[in-house]
Write a structure and sequence with these properties.
Number of domains: 1
Strand content: 15-25%
Shape: elongated
Number of strands: 5
Structural class: alpha/beta
CATH topology: Hypothetical Protein Ychn, Chain: A
Amino acid sequence: MNRKTSMVLTVAASLVLSALVAVAKPAKQVKLHKVIFEMSVDGMPKWESVLRNAENVQKSFGAKNTRLEIVAHGKGIGLLLGKNAAANPELKKMIQKLHAQGVIFAACNNTLTRLKIDPKELVQVAIIVDSGVAEVIRKQEAGWTYVKSG
């Protein structure tokens, strides 16, 4: 093969490669937003606020693009008590709606033990974690964004 033919083939291969790269660009990846909300304060307005914050995060990024967890401990455990949800239909409705959209509601076992709360008293969608603070730490170490609520 002579030099001229070699150069023509090199240019042609380069053009073909450039065209393939342009066509084969990967689709734009959507970022997954992982957020843990810590709820450690008492009071219906505070609990409703954390639920609205979770709802707003999902509205902004899309429910499919978020992984959200609300961990309740200390005085914040009231958020996950069934009697409080029963007393406030709006609170119950928001918890159910967010859970249906994938939000995890975690109750601190240390708090349940200290306050002598039977896990059966929690809203049905709640899970129990060993420690609310430890759960926050684990999530942060795994790259989740931390939001202090209340």
